[in-house]
Automatic annotation (TrEMBL):
Residues covered by the Hydantoinase/oxoprolinase N-terminal domain: 10-188
InterPro entries with a match to the protein in the record: ATPase_NBD, Hydant_A_N, Hydantoinase_A, Oxoprolinase-like
Superkingdom in the source lineage: Bacteria
The protein's name in its UniProt record: Hydantoinase/oxoprolinase family protein
Native source species: Nitratireductor aquimarinus
Matching Gene3D superfamilies: 3.30.420.40
Hydantoinase A/oxoprolinase domain span: 209-494
């Protein structure tokens, strides 16, 4: 079968500890999944290994693939670790120190007296100026001096840099000068990666636009090299299917678009999981949910109301604001590999992680630190073998590190120490859940909790009890849900324009700008090969009260009154009040979507009573219990059960404690419900 005739799509999500793979036959709904350890020194190696594992399970050939989707943390890790390419920045004369000045603010949790401003990704010594000037509305005040650009190129040539960004004053209103600067730089510096702000973030705010451009330039060589390596590996495997990569906005785009703006992939991995969780929840009739993605290093929390995944332009990666459209979520350093340590007689858990190597002591790779996973092993929450029996756990090593690093320093029993580790990490995550719920006007008790990731289902019921949530949904394959989410993701892109001057809503002017942005969106959808009947565009307005420094995104309505009413309602929901002040329109945005067809779901057949394949002693707060171990693959639709029980599967382990009941939904999800009268 040729790739053009095939209905096979494969998704690969590379995490810090494991690489997850899902292979889908879109015609039948059949899914094959695989999981393999990540290879930090060359992520493309695990990428190819995972594809081969999934294809072998399906009995298919690589040449049969019609679509290859990928979620990568390459750009994110380079930004976090400061390992991007050495970069120069070109700006308008007089604005060389925009990055150094920044916003002149101090992080909320930093000590006012000893905080040190982080080193900028591009120091002033590598920022060069050119002669030109645009007015706020885009009018040319000073024509671009091309000789100054060539002089800038000459200066950059001596800096030993690999990439250069271009961010000129008010270029978002008129990109002509930036585009010409880029043309000259590419002529003068043919081997250098060049990026301009209007291709990455064409909106107001000079510091954020300059910073994003600089970061995009810094990761461009690395991401371009990585994507090229993937394409070569796929070509060697006889894969003719296009490579699509996940973006932070919850959609995917072709490799060419990612090469131009690789910063769009920052925080894309967690976004895929949110998309997958929404798809499964929708199939179960659930529209209000809180997702908690717990992996080896971090936990990512997102709230979905009425089935809508909200975007934010106030995201951060490490120390840096990155105001690109991204799924609105909170990330904390809490995962299965989070290290538990006693410092000054106080137990702390995370954000340091044991990572993939050496990992938790229980993994048998020489880990010497106690981790969250080791605490689970001590309490009996995990079976002796993971990954379908391919990975054994070293129980004694886990007990030894928890005893040595936690129990003995605190004078606790082994079980009490392990339970304390889990209580601390659970409370860290509860705080993050409250950020996306309570702090934004939502009562978490009215939502369904959806835990996923390799460690998520071990913590789901405990988190729900702490939050007062009575229903938990476990997806069919929670440990590889980010890969499943890639298969459900639409193609997405945003096209924005900041108004020359913020002011009252002018519907006629706004419609004209929306029309131009929709033309850009349509051209992008054509390049990506999206059929006419699969195209969707949504209009969004970013508004604020006069005098405010930040905007709120509101779906566009046809009248000024309707837009202002929607803004006021959203402001009240977020902040608890509305102001008696003029409302200003700042930026207009068109969100373009290439819709992915929903495949048939390979649902469960009706099932009978549960049958345990083994039993294991598990330590709960009220003592040890002999708990049945159930292979989740043996559970049929409609099967009900009471906790305590442990469900095992290839990609995760599900802990159902006493006081909870479960039922298997026809689409494969497990719905857990807290029994009435159970203490929270």
């Amino acid at each position: 079968m040729s790739s053009a005739e095939s209905s096979l799509a494969i998704a690969v999500d590379i995490g810090g500890t494991f690489t997850d793979i899902s292979l889908l036959d879109r015609s039948s709904g059949k899914v094959w999944r695989a999981k393999t350890p990540s290879v930090p020194q060359d992520p493309s190696e695990a990428f190819l290994t995972g594809i081969r594992l999934a294809l072998a399970d399906a009995g298919a050939e690589a040449s049969e693939l019609a679509r290859v989707l990928h979620g990568t943390t390459v750009a994110t890790n380079m930004i976090l670790e400061g390992k991007g390419a050495r970069t120069a920045l070109v700006t308008t004369r007089g604005f060389r120190h925009v990055l150094a000045i920044g916003r002149q603010d101090i992080p909320r949790k930093a000590n006012l007296y000893n905080w040190v401003k982080p080193e900028r990704p591009v120091p002033a010594s590598r920022i060069v100026e050119v002669d030109e000037r645009l007015a706020a509305g885009g009018a040319v005040l000073e024509t671009l001096d091309e000789d100054s650009v060539r002089q800038a190129a000459s200066a950059i040539r001596t800096m030993n840099v690999e990439a250069v960004g271009v961010c000129l004053m008010h270029a978002f209103a008129n990109p002509a000068h930036e585009r010409r600067v880029a043309e000259i730089l590419r002529e003068e510096l043919p081997d250098m990666a060049v990026t301009i702000s209007t291709d990455v973030l064409p909106v107001v705010r000079e510091y954020e636009r300059s910073l994003t451009t600089a970061l995009n330039a810094a990761v461009m060589p690395g991401v371009t090299s990585y994507v090229g390596r993937l394409e070569r590996r796929l070509e060697d495997e006889k894969v003719a299917a296009p490579l699509l990569l996940m973006k932070s906005n919850g959609g995917v785009a072709g490799a060419a678009a990612i090469r131009e703006a690789p910063a769009l992939t920052a925080l894309s991995g967690p976004a895929a999981g949110v998309v997958g969780a929404r798809a499964i929840a929708a199939a179960c009739g659930i529209r209000d949910l809180i997702t908690v993605d717990i992996g080896g290093t971090s936990a990512d929390i997102c709230l979905i109301k009425d089935g809508r995944i909200d975007l934010t332009q106030h995201g951060k990666v490490g120390d840096w604001p990155l105001p690109l459209p991204m799924v609105d979520m909170v990330t904390i350093g809490a995962g299965g590999g989070s290290i538990a340590a006693v410092e000054d007689a106080t137990l702390t858990v995370g954000p340091r992680s044991a990572g993939a190597r050496p990992g938790p002591a229980a993994y048998g790779h020489g880990g010497q630190d106690a981790t969250v996973t080791d605490a689970h092993v001590v309490l009996g929450h995990l079976p002796e073998k993971l990954l379908g029996g391919r990975m054994g756990l070293d129980v004694e090593a886990a007990r030894e590190v928890v005893r040595k690093e936690v129990a003995e320093p605190l004078g606790l029993s082994l079980e009490a120490a392990a339970r304390g580790v889990l209580q601390i990490v659970d409370n860290h995550m509860v705080g993050a859940v409250r950020v996306v719920s309570v702090e934004r006007g939502h009562d978490p008790r009215h939502f369904t909790l959806v835990p996923f990731g390799g460690a998520g289902p071990l913590h789901g019921c405990a988190l729900a009890e702490l939050l007062g949530i009575s229903r938990v949904m476990i997806p069919p394959a929670p440990g590889v849900l980010c890969a499943d989410g890639l298969l459900a993701a639409d193609l997405k892109a945003e096209f924005s324009r900041t108004l020359p001057k913020a002011g009252a809503i002018d519907v006629v002017t706004a419609k004209g700008i929306f029309g131009e942005l929709e033309q850009q969106a349509d051209a992008w959808l054509t390049v990506e090969g999206v059929p006419e009947d699969k195209r969707q565009t949504d209009r969004v307005a970013l508004l604020r009260y006069y005098g405010q420094g930040g905007e709120i995104a509101i779906p566009w309505a046809e009248t000024r009154e309707a837009v202002e009413e929607a803004f006021t309602a959203e402001h009240k929901a977020l902040y608890g009040f509305a102001l008696d002040a003029p409302i200003e329109l700042v930026t207009l945005r068109v969100e373009a979507t290439g819709l992915t067809s929903e495949p048939p779901r390979d649902g469960l057949q009706p099932g009978g009573p549960l049958e345990a394949y083994d039993h294991a002693p598990v330590q709960f707060a009220d003592g040890a219990r002999d708990v049945p171990l159930i292979d989740r693959n043996t559970i049929g639709a409609g099967t009900r059960f009471d906790g305590p029980v442990i469900l095992t599967q290839l990609d995760t382990t599900i802990l159902v404690p006493p006081g909870w009941t479960g039922e298997a939904h026809a689409v494969g999800a497990i719905i857990l419900t807290r029994q009435e009268g159970t203490a929270v």
